[in-house]
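note to self — DONT lose this again. spent like an hour looking for the file last time. sequence + predicted structure for the chain T wanted, 918 res
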Amino acid sequence: MRKKYLSALLFGALLFASAGTFTSCKDYDDDISNLQGQVDGIKADLEDLQAQISAGKWIQSVTPVEGGFTVTISDGQSFTIVNGQDGAAGATGAAGAPGTQITIGEDGYWYFDGEKSEYKAVVDAEEGKVNVPTIKDGVWYIVNEDGELEATEYKANGATYAVAEANGGFTIYAPNADGTGVVECYFPGAAGSITEMTLGEKTKQARTSYTMSGRDVPFENNDVLVSRQVFNFNGNGIINSASAWMGNKELPADGEYVYSSPTRIDLRIDPVNVPANGIEFTLTDTKNSNLTPFKFAARASQDSNNDPMSNTNSRAAVTGNGLWTLSMENVVVSEPTNGVWNYLNTAETQGYLYAVNADNAFRSEYNLNVKRVDPEQLTQLSIRGVNTLTGAPETYTTPGVSGGTFDTTPISYKTGVAYKVNGVQSSALYDMYLTADASDIEVYGLTFNQDNHTFTIGKNPDVSSIPAHFTLEVYTVSNAGEVNKATIEVQINSAIHAPAEYTLIEHDVNTSYENNYFGIDLAIMKTALGDNLNQWIQNVDLRDAAVDMEWSYDGGKTFGAIPAGIQANVVSELLNKYNPKYNPNADDDRNAANFIQVDIDNSAVNGLLLDFTYYIKATFKATTASGGGELNSITVPVQFHAPALSELFAVRDAYVVDDVINAYFYDTATNSTAVDLNRYFSKYVCDADLEFTNDNIGETGHNGAWWFKFSDATAFGKSTIDFRTDFAGEEHRSILGGKGVNAYGEAVKVNVKKAYFNTDETASAGWNYTLPGSDTYSFQIRLMSPIYEGTVTPVSGDVVKINANDFVHGAKLTSEHIVGRDYATNDFYMFQGNLTTGWRNKQIVKVVPDVDTEHYIESAKYDNVYDKEGKLQQAGVITIKGRAISNTTTVHMPIKIHDAWGLVLSTSVPVQITVGEE
């Protein structure tokens, strides 16, 4: 059980006085959703904390503050639980009296309100057991010299404290108001939040072959190899004794065994944001026994596209992709009876299966085997640097023995980067110590992390009289106890390591050519340069050829030339590139390098993606006088946006009825029923493609494309839509016998498509649409005749009135009696023509009246009225005649209006023949 009292074993003193009181608290299995009772000053904080835990977060740390402690959770929020300030009365009782403040001194004893007691905080490790201080009967029970819990005189009322549990969680304890009991509230740590843990398909080994007692060891995909090496100190004349070792690890005693493993285990954890680098991993078999005393540490799996210079121990890095690599930490064992080694032999021969166990809170599947192998021998060291000649990252190796130096390839190292020295046979390395001459440490600002085996160059003096290199000394001690020393000649790279974090830049390319640009603010980079800014200004070369501008299509993994249509330059001021003040490359004025201006020429862009993240990389180099080479670079994510195709079309509302465009024939020159599509739109994309959809009206087995046609199916702005007339039979015609049939007047759905956006419609390429549906626009349209959709009615009232006597002699009906109106209720001038000159309205071919069905009307004709000399008196009248009648009667005179497109408006007009009326 890895239950640790926080103040004693993990975080320092965390026992604090508290005036708040608890009555009860549900356990974690009930989601600890309510804290029962009232707690002055603490209750609200704990409830807020619990709500975050219930939302799937976890505790990362608990640290002491004055009068309480601060709990930090996985999203960075923190909750400070402190003592009651004034001892005010709470809801469940009177004001709480301050409790005793309990801390632990450096000597390991409990201190009560600053006074040392006779009680030890923790029994010495060699005594074999550890008791945790607790509260019983309202007082503190503390570990005595015999390792047993013993009651003290100190009351526990008012004290709160936290305990780190074996599964990575924490329990917060608070006493009841009467001091007779303790309320426990458990909150999970990172491991308690894991929902799934998946092993890689196979384990990774440091090399391809291993032996055991000199015999080859075949290993399977899921084998974990374990070796042991007896440690016998050999200073090799470098140091005199194990106690003189300079590294952070205490060396084993001679004859002790060092267990290690060359195996790496790939692990995927859900949720992906759980920080596995803070979890203790073990291997547990199907009998629920741990593979002791071995522990495994997690480090974030490094993507090959991460900065190759940042090759430090990545256990502190969290990638957020849930991918981790486990490696076994070296462990020292004193085993005169070979107990651990024999257990490993049993596990191997019996075929025990093991699961990865995260803080005893979550396990993977049982899929790992254990095998013993001979230990590796440390013969080489490696380090990742920069090839001075090419500027490319490169790994260099050196013999890991006394006097060993790195190979002769020129290598250099950047300032501000933590470079890790690795043992090539990493499982054979027990410890390493890095150092350099004291003067070099001062001049170059060298710092060392002896735990991670890294060195960092803090500064480049940039003084010509100081050599730009120093000697790094690497001391190693192997698991076998052999000490060696290697030296590395470190050259200072002119590059400045100051990564600037640029957020996504989003640019709308739907703008005028002159204003189609955006800027990358170099102030962000300059801020990141910090103390190195002056060095950058003194050395940078801003000429066109010196600043490399690159482009990434694959999420920043690889970079290449910036594509056609995109141009980037360093400028002092963001301006229209046609402005006379536009000044690319800032005249090499280093202080005036304020922006990178990115200009976009839509007409030259070919196939770039909208709404997709690209990366622009600018690499700045030193002047020739400063030695050349890369100084630094910035990488900026960029997205380009444009309106969806549907946003580039707008229908003129006056033509729309129930979301359908009513398109009326208008071509009387050729009597064509085709209409121009663009006349119904206030804006449109001229060269967009057209197609009919499969759900258009039509007979079974036919789609809309069988009934309609486009004059140009690849250019919206030039295309007309019409009925098809190329069928073998008339049954498919849209106009038949003067009537609208089949597709006439039906709404046809049209899809408009264009794969790319471009402000220059003469261009054959542009910005490709990527979002679903963004490259398609749809509308509905129906084709109709303005005359056929019209009406013929009396000018006033419900009927046309004529006198019976006039009816017998021939009554003249004119535009004063009857009016013809088209679909829009406009007069279509049915009486304005004559038999020789035709109709004023070219949409009308002829007007034909007829007798009624009752034959009250004996004749009806459209004609002209002439005088006796043959002079035209009235053009275009309808004359109707009939027999004399005795009573006023209303008859319906049929009339047909023939339009220019072969359609006939057949209707009737009510005519009242009056008898005996004025």
